From TrEMBL:
<protein>
    <recommendedName>
        <fullName>Dihydroorotase</fullName>
        <ecNumber>3.5.2.3</ecNumber>
    </recommendedName>
</protein>
<dbReference type="GO" id="GO:0008270">
    <property type="term" value="F:zinc ion binding"/>
</dbReference>
<feature type="binding site">
    <location>
        <position position="175"/>
    </location>
    <ligand>
        <name>Zn(2+) 1</name>
    </ligand>
</feature>
<feature type="active site">
    <location>
        <position position="328"/>
    </location>
</feature>
<feature type="binding site">
    <location>
        <position position="175"/>
    </location>
    <ligand>
        <name>Zn(2+) 2</name>
    </ligand>
</feature>
<dbReference type="GO" id="GO:0004151">
    <property type="term" value="F:dihydroorotase activity"/>
</dbReference>
<feature type="binding site">
    <location>
        <position position="301"/>
    </location>
    <ligand>
        <name>substrate</name>
    </ligand>
</feature>
<keyword id="KW-0479">Metal-binding</keyword>
<dbReference type="GO" id="GO:0005737">
    <property type="term" value="C:cytoplasm"/>
</dbReference>
<feature type="binding site">
    <location>
        <position position="332"/>
    </location>
    <ligand>
        <name>substrate</name>
    </ligand>
</feature>
<feature type="binding site">
    <location>
        <position position="81"/>
    </location>
    <ligand>
        <name>Zn(2+) 1</name>
    </ligand>
</feature>
<dbReference type="InterPro" id="IPR024403">
    <property type="entry name" value="DHOase_cat"/>
</dbReference>
<feature type="binding site">
    <location>
        <position position="202"/>
    </location>
    <ligand>
        <name>Zn(2+) 2</name>
    </ligand>
</feature>
<keyword id="KW-0378">Hydrolase</keyword>
<keyword id="KW-0862">Zinc</keyword>
<feature type="binding site">
    <location>
        <position position="328"/>
    </location>
    <ligand>
        <name>Zn(2+) 1</name>
    </ligand>
</feature>
<feature type="binding site">
    <location>
        <position position="255"/>
    </location>
    <ligand>
        <name>Zn(2+) 2</name>
    </ligand>
</feature>
């Protein structure tokens, strides 16, 4: 029999306190605070900071935040853009370690990007990744299929076979590379319509970014690194929204990072183009000023931009122009990051800090409510990935218990080596961020309790 959890005095989407009962994989009951009936005498009670491993059939979680108010209950977070690195780069991350980090960050589903070795461009590879996710059990893994064979940008991959496979792929992307040939991009957009898929574009005009190391601007000029102009991103986004309009298909723009990119998406949406866009946590908070010390932990694709761009993406997320926050969690082994800037790999980890960065930049500044956070980090990405029959569901009785409990009053110092991910390239190390994931539930089973993955709690029953 599975453990029943009673969450006492939690605040759904930050609203008024209620009791929520999780049983048999679903939210079985939501009652007024203090009124949930404990169905069995054998239960343990835990207060925040006093994790006890579930030993009875019923566990009561006293869901007080560190300031005494109720913990915020959100639908389990859904990441549309995660690099899990398996197969091929298990030294950086595996499906197991990456989804465990995802659970620690409050995620119950991730979309695993296709730039693995081999590339996820066949039904065989996407089915393998899906199976590894199922075996790990930390979060649902939805493989992204490559748009072109080997990400080479020359021939379309077997999009239909991946869509029809057991992995039911709906998101296709050459992420890491741009689908820059317009005829291939057009064909991909046309092809995915047959199964309601979406092409997620890494918008980077390759000719404008040859040898580029960081954002092109004042800082790149001063420190002498080859610049990466904003227009290299904007030109591809502009082209792609026109193509998506022309063929009447669904386009998703990955990790949008410039003020004018936001303008283009705003314009496209006003025309009724079927386009969605994501911003990463790091582009919501960090700027290219951080490159001055040549620390490659800040080297990322697209590059960190200017303070004006940061303000524009925050505004775009607040007004709904940008649909979602996606982590672009990009783990790299130490040797690929602990080297000189120009030799270092692009990318930073993000699963365990995403919610805190969104709280710091958007909630604590009054620009988004917790209900908005549920939309941009759960409901909307689940909808774009077409997994909204299982994830990003309303907080209501009968719904699958994919949930995260957050303590917004907590503060924590980010320590690179104390992260759950197998890689240490967090740009937030040494920074204090608000908010802490207290517990994550995947179909009613706790994957995280008291902020710790459940297998790390002594004697944990999985
Ligand atoms: N974001 C990055 O800087 N790197 C990503 C690729 C990508 O998302 O473009 C990676 O796979 O490492
Ligand atoms: Zn990318
Ligand atoms: Zn990526």
């Amino acid at each position: 029999m599975s453990t029943t959890y009673i969450l006492r005095g939690v605040r759904p989407l930050g609203g008024d306190p209620v009791d929520v009962v999780l049983a048999d994989g679903v939210i079985s009951e939501i009652t007024a605070a203090g009124e949930a009936t404990v169905p069995d005498a054998s239960h343990g009670v835990t207060a925040p900071g006093e994790a006890t491993v579930p030993d009875g059939d019923v566990v009561v979680l006293d869901a007080r935040a560190s300031d005494g108010s109720g913990l915020v209950l959100l639908p389990g977070l859904v990441d549309l853009h995660t690099h899990l690195r398996e197969p091929g780069r298990e030294d950086a991350e595996t499906v197991w370690s990456g989804t465990r980090a995802a659970a620690a960050g409050g995620f119950t589903a991730v979309h695993a990007m296709a730039n693995t070795t081999p590339v996820a461009d066949t039904a065989g590879v996407v089915e393998q990744v899906r199976r590894l996710g199922e075996e790990a059990g930390w979060a649902d893994v939805h493989p992204v299929g490559a748009v072109t064979v080997g990400l080479a940008g020359e021939r379309l991959a077997e999009l239909g076979a991946m869509a029809d496979s057991a992995a039911r792929v709906r998101v296709f992307s050459d992420d890491g590379r741009c689908v820059h040939d317009p005829i291939l991009m057009r064909r991909a957009l046309e092809y995915v319509k047959a199964f309601d898929g979406v092409v997620a574009q890494h918008a980077q005009e390759p000719r404008l970014t040859e040898g580029a190391q960081m954002n092109e601007g004042v800082v790149s000029g001063e420190i002498g690194l080859t610049g990466w102009p904003a227009v290299a991103e904007e030109a591809i986004i502009a082209r792609d929204v026109l193509l998506a309009e022309h063929v009447g298909s669904r386009l998703h723009v990955c990790h949008l990072s410039t003020a004018r990119s936001v303008e283009i998406i705003r314009w496209a949406k006003s025309r009724g183009v079927n386009v969605t866009a994501e911003v990463t946590p790091h582009h919501l908070i960090l700027t290219d000023e951080l490159a001055r010390d040549y620390d490659p932990v800040f080297k990322v694709n697209p590059p960190l931009r200017t303070a004006e761009d940061v303000e524009a993406v925050r505004q775009g997320l607040a007004d709904g122009t940008i649909d979602i926050v996606a982590t672009d969690h990009a783990p790299h082994p130490v040797e690929d990051k602990d080297c000189e800037w120009s030799a270092a790999a692009f990318g930073m980890t993000g699963l365990e800090t995403a919610l805190s960065v969104v709280q710091a930049t958007m909630v604590d500044t009054g620009r988004l409510t917790w209900a908005d956070v549920a939309r941009v980090l759960s409901t909307a990405p689940a909808r774009i990935g077409r997994i909204d029959d299982r994830q990003g569901r309303p907080l209501a009785a009968g719904e699958p218990a994919n949930l995260v409990l957050v303590d917004p009053a907590a503060h924590r110092m980010i320590d690179g080596s104390a992260q759950v991910t197998a890689s240490a390239n967090t740009p937030f190390r040494g920074m204090e961020l608000p908010g802490r994931v207290v517990a994550t539930f995947l179909r009613g089973r706790a994957t995280v309790l008291d902020g710790v993955p459940v297998d790390a709690l002594e004697g944990a029953a999985r």
